[in-house]
From TrEMBL:
<protein>
    <submittedName>
        <fullName>RIB43A-like with coiled-coils protein 2</fullName>
    </submittedName>
</protein>
<feature type="coiled-coil region">
    <location>
        <begin position="282"/>
        <end position="346"/>
    </location>
</feature>
<feature type="coiled-coil region">
    <location>
        <begin position="160"/>
        <end position="187"/>
    </location>
</feature>
<keyword id="KW-0966">Cell projection</keyword>
<keyword id="KW-0969">Cilium</keyword>
<dbReference type="Pfam" id="PF05914">
    <property type="entry name" value="RIB43A"/>
</dbReference>
<comment type="subunit">
    <text>Microtubule inner protein component of sperm flagellar doublet microtubules.</text>
</comment>
<keyword id="KW-0206">Cytoskeleton</keyword>
<keyword id="KW-0175">Coiled coil</keyword>
<comment type="similarity">
    <text>Belongs to the RIB43A family.</text>
</comment>
<keyword id="KW-0963">Cytoplasm</keyword>
<keyword id="KW-0282">Flagellum</keyword>
<dbReference type="InterPro" id="IPR008805">
    <property type="entry name" value="RIB43A"/>
</dbReference>
<feature type="coiled-coil region">
    <location>
        <begin position="44"/>
        <end position="110"/>
    </location>
</feature>
Length: 375
């Protein structure tokens, strides 16, 4: 029979330790030979710094946008104030013009107002010393024609002089209003230009600050990449040196020694057997081959015994099956004879019924006598 070795607790612990070391080596290889994971996957500090820089940049952008919005709102408010002042000045000018017209350009102050004055008859000079019945004053006569003509000329001269003065005064006021309006427009334009210049200066300073920050950030990133490249190169050199000078490549025998005993070396560091160990191993293999051959012969003998036993059992089973078949044949034959005898008896009984007991069969006339009337 085969003899299998039973695994002890020490063997299970050793197998678990070997599996754990293999897993650690596999993870280490994956970490070392994966530059993406080595550079990006574990550099959390650099990623946090990038996130902070992006956040600071977004805050600067938001501050700049807020400043621009405030400047735009301030400019809009100033423009609205200037427009409001201009509208107020225009309204005051119109108000003064209307006041001047009400004071100095009324209808009754015109030189030809007496021609269409509706109250001229009420205001006319009538000499009541003459009566209508005497006929001393006729229609169309004007006793004060010279005085009236002189008065009209004086009045005409006064009106012309007054209109001239009023026109000159209105022209001066108009020129002054236009100058004031032009001064207000110029002041507003200067203010708008100053605000626009302030906005451009603010944008320029913000752009300069952003460009300076970007240059500093680029230089810092360049320096960081340079330092990372140097550190990576140093790590590679150190790793190569450790591998070259380590016990694994130098194949030192002491590295495979285990605390479980001299016959249980560490599988992850084991480099092979010595000549004595190989000789002992070969002798053990030869002994195992002999035992295996002996076991094979024993198994062959046991198989032959089983074959003989199976053949004997098969012969017994065949003889028993033949006996069963013979008995089944006899039973079938006996049943057939009994069935034949029963068939003959049934035939004889049927002949008796047909020839003796039921020999007078009713004819058609017997059945036709029924159902001939309603009763």
């Amino acid at each position: 029979m085969l003899k299998f070795q039973t695994a002890t607790k020490e063997d299970l612990k050793l197998a678990a330790s070997i599996q754990r070391r293999r897993q650690i080596d596999a993870e280490r290889k994956e970490r070392i030979f994966n530059p993406r994971f080595r550079k990006i996957g574990i550099d959390k500090e650099f990623l946090d710094k990038q996130v902070a820089e992006k956040k600071q940049q977004r805050e600067l952008e938001q501050a700049r946008e807020s400043q621009l919005d405030e400047n735009l709102i301030r400019s809009s408010k100033v423009a609205l104030l200037l427009e409001k002042e201009q509208e107020e000045e225009r309204r005051n000018i119109n108000k003064e013009i209307e006041h001047f017209r009400q004071q100095y350009q009324r209808a009754e102050q015109r030189r030809d107002f007496d021609l269409y004055d509706p109250t001229a008859l009420k205001k006319g000079d009538v000499d009541l010393s003459f009566e209508a019945g005497f006929g001393q004053k006729f229609a169309g006569e004007d006793d004060n024609a010279k005085e009236r003509s002189k008065a009209q000329k004086e009045e005409m001269r006064w009106w012309i002089e007054k209109q001239k003065n009023e026109r000159m005064q209105a022209e001066r006021e108009r020129e002054e209003a236009e100058k004031a309006y032009e001064a207000a427009v110029i002041s507003r334009d200067k203010r708008a230009m100053a605000l626009d210049q302030m906005e451009r200066d603010c944008r320029r300073r913000l752009n300069e600050a952003t460009a300076q920050f970007n240059r500093a950030l680029a230089e810092e990133q360049k320096y960081r990449r340079h330092c990372e490249a140097l550190q990576e190169e140093e790590d590679k050199k150190a790793d190569i040196y450790n591998h070259v000078t380590g016990d694994f490549l130098t194949e030192a025998k002491e590295q495979a020694e285990s605390t479980h005993g001299p016959h249980k070396p560490l599988a992850s560091r084991y480099k092979g057997m010595t000549a004595d160990e190989l000789r002992v191993f070969r002798e053990a293999q030869t002994q195992q081959l002999k035992e295996i051959e002996k076991m094979r012969l024993e198994e062959k003998r046991r198989d032959e015994e089983w074959d003989r036993l199976m053949n004997t059992q098969a012969e017994i089973a065949d003889s028993y099956q033949r006996e069963i078949d013979r008995r089944r044949t006899e039973i079938k034959k006996k049943i057939a004879e009994e069935n034949l005898e029963l068939a003959q008896q049934h035939k004889s009984h049927q002949d008796y019924l047909n020839r003796v007991l039921y020999k007078n069969k009713p004819t058609a006339a017997f059945f036709e006598q029924f159902n001939r009337d309603a009763r």
